[in-house]
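Model the whole thing, not chain by chain.
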Amino acid sequence: MILSTCVLVPTVCFWFDAPHLVTLATRIAILSIAAISLNLLIGTCGLVSFGHGMYLAIGAYSVSILQTTGVDNGFAHFSAATVVAGIAAALIGPLALRTSGIAFIMVTLAFAQMFFYLMISLRVFGGDDGMSLAGHSLLGPLDLGNRLGLFEVSVLLLAAITALSQLFNRSTAGYALRAARQNVRRAESLGLDIHRLRRIVYVVSAVLTADAGSLFANLNSYVSPSYSAWPMSGDLILIVVLGGMGSVFGPIVGAIFLLSVESFAPGLSEHWMLPYGIAIVWIVMTARHGLLGALLALRPAGKERRQ
Amino acid sequence: MTTLIITQVLNGLQFGLMLFLIATGLTLILGIMDFVNLAHGSLYMMGAYATATLVAKGMGFFPALLGGVLATFAVGVVIEVVVVRKLYRRDHLDHVLATFGIILAFNEVVRIIWGPVGLTFDPPEQFADSVDLLGFTYPAYRLLVIGMISLVGAGLWWLVTRTRIGMQIRAGATHPEIVSALGVNIRALKTTLFALGAALAAFSGALIGPLRSVQPGMGEEVLIQALVVIIVGGIGAIRGALVAGILLGLLDTLGRAFLPLMISRFANPEVAQAVGPALASMMIYLTMALVLVFKPAGLLPATGK
Amino acid sequence: MSGIASLELRGLVKRFGGLLATDHVSVTIAEGELFALIGPNGAGKSTLIGQIAGELMPDEGEILIGDQSITGWGVVARARSGLGRTFQIAQTIDAFTTLESVVLSRRSGSLSPTGFFAPLLGDKEILDIARETLNVVGLGELTQLRVDRLSHGERKQLELAMALVRQPRVLLLDEPMAGMSPGESETMAQLLSELRGKCTIVLIEHDMDVVFKLADRIGVLASGALIAIGSADDIRNNPLVRASYLGEEEIT
C-alpha cells in the first residue's frame, strides 16, 4: 500500500504532466501527519486543541531559522523542531489541561495566537512577512528540496505515524484514555492516572505536528506566522472531523478531501470561501461520523449480534 | 510623561471596556447555553460594516449606530434559528466547527459586498475634536466610547439582575427544566439571548469603527482577546468579564506603550526594539497563563452552578 | 499490595456549610469482614463513601488501609493502593466490550511503560483471568458484547467484575442491588455471599434481608453519626435503631 502510493502517485502525476499534483499529494501527506497527531488528542482523549497550528509553525521556523545560521542538516532541523515543540508543549500542556471542555479549546487557541503575535513582532525572523527558506533540509544524501524526495519522505513518515497511532489505540494506554473520555470517574476509580497520560499524549502530539511543520516548510520553501493563526488550527480540526475521528485513516480521507477542495476551488470562483463555509456548517449539522463514516454507512448494515 | 500615562490609562480603559462588552455576550451564551460561538467576532464585524454603510448613506452617527445594532440583532436571530439551535445538544467540537464555517462565509460575504479594502467612517461631529481635561487634551470620541459602554454595561447589569427576563436567564442557566416547567419559553429565551449577544458585539464593532479601519477579518483578533478575558474572568461571569476586560485592556495598552521604553533602560535599544513589542503582544496571554496556574476557574467565577 | 487489608476510619468529620454531614465516625473493619452500612436517605452514607473513595476530603480525622494512612490521597492513588469500588449508578464504559472493560481494569494497575503501551488484549494470561472473573459474576457468555447493550443488572455485575479482577484489598459496594430485578438481586446476593471472607467489604444496601443475612457487622448511620454497630441481631433489637431507622414509632 505504502510502496504503491510512493510509486503510483508520482508516475500518474508525471504521466499527465502535472507536477503540481505531486505538490498537492505531498501537502496532503504532510497535513495528514499533523491531523493524525491532533487526532491523538481529539479522537483518543476527547481534547479539542485549537492551537496545533502553533506546533506546525514551530517546526517550520526551526528549519528556516537554522537555515539562516547556515545549518542545512535536516536531522538538526527535525531535532530542533522536536525539542522546541516538546518544551513548549510540556509548558503549555499542563496549563491547558487544568481546564477541560470549552475552556481547553479557548486556552489552546489563545496560546497559538500568542505565538502568532510573537512571530509577527519579531522582525529578526521576518515579522509578518515570514521567511523564505535559504535552502532545504538535507537528510544525508537526500535533499528535501527535491519534490519527489520530499514526497517519498512525507509518505513514509505518514505510514509510520499511521501504524504507530494504530498500535497506540490498541494499547492499554489508548484504551485508558478512551475510557476516561467517556467516563473520567470510572477511569480514575480504576487507578488510571489520566492527567499524566493526557500530558504525555499532548507532548507527543505536539512534537509529531512540529515534525510535519518542518516538512511543510520544505514544501513551501517559505515560513509564515500565519501557520500559527487560528485558520490553520481550524483546518487541522476540520481535516480530523471531516474524515471521522473514530478511525486512524479518517484524517487521511479528510486531508485528501479538504486540500483538494482548497486547491481546486479558487480556480472556479474568487468567492469559493462562501459556499465552502456554508458547506462546513451543513456537514457539521448532518454528517455525524465524518466522511469516512458516511462512506462506511453505505455498506450493507452488519447483523446485530447478541447471543 | 504624566499626561502620556493618563492618556494611555484612558486608552486602556476604553479598550478594556470594549473587551468586556464583547466578552459579556460571549460568556453569557457560553455559561447559560453551553455554546461556543466563535462567530461572535463576525457579528462584531457586521455591526461595524452595517453602521459604516448607514453613515455613508448620509445617516447621522447615532441613528446609524442604532441601525447597525438592530440589523446585527436580526442576523443573530437568523443564525440562532437556522444553525445554532440545532447544535445545542451536540458537543463543543461541533459548535467550534460550525461557527468556524460561519466565520469563513461571513468574511467572504463582506468581501463580496464591500470589497477586500477596509472602510473608514468619522465619529459624530460634536465629538470629532479633542477636549481639555484638567490640563491635557484627549479625543472626545474616545471619552464618548467610554461613557456609552459604561451606560450599556450598567443597563445590562440592570437587565440581568433586576428584570424578569434577567431572572429567567439566570434561572435558565442553572435549572432549565424548572424554568420551562414554569411556562417560560426556553427556546425563545435562548434566541433572544443569542441575538442580544450579537447586538452587544455589533455595538462594540460600530463604536470601534471610527478608531480603526473596518475590514474583513477584523473580528477574529478581538474574538480571541475576548476569549482570554472569559478565561481570566471565569466562564459565564459578567462581573468576571468586567474585571478581566479592564485588567487586560490596561495591561495590553500600557504594555505596548511603555514596555519597550522600560526594557531600553537596562538593555541596548536594538534588543529593546525587538523584545519590547514581542513581550507587549504576549502580555494578556501570559496573564492568562498565570491565572490558569493559580485560579484555573478564573478570577471571579460565576456562582450558582 | 496483594492480599486483603483492614479499613480504619478515625474520627471522620465532614461539614457542608453549617451541616455536619459526617459526625466523628470511627470504625475499624477487619480483614475479610463484610461490613454493611445502613441508614435512612440523607443520613450521610454517600458522603462517607465519597471520603473513603477519595472523592471528598474529610475536614477532620484519618483513614487507613492496613497500617497505611491514605487520608490526603486522591482517587487515583487510593485505587492504586488496592481500593476497589462499584457505584450506586453503574459507571461503565459504553463503547468497550465487557472483556475489554475487565482487561483494562486488570492492567490499569501496571505502572511500567512497557505494560501500558503493549496491546490491551495481547496477554493471554490476563485474558484468561478476565474471562474467569466474568464467569464468576455470571457474564461468561457475554465477553464480546458491547457494554451499552447490557441490561442494568448486567452492568452492575460487570462493575463488580472490574473491581474483583484487580484483587482489591478493600472493596466498596455502593448499593449493588439498586434497581435490579428480583432474579438479578438473587444472583448478586449469591455472589456477595461467595465473596465473604475473601475480601474486606464495605456494603451499602437498602435491601435489609440481604444485609441481615450477609453482613458480619452492621453500622447504622443517622444524621452523619454512627449510632450503632453490631451483629444483625444486635441491630434488630437495638431500640435506638428501631426508632430512627427501621420505621417504628418512637417508644418513649
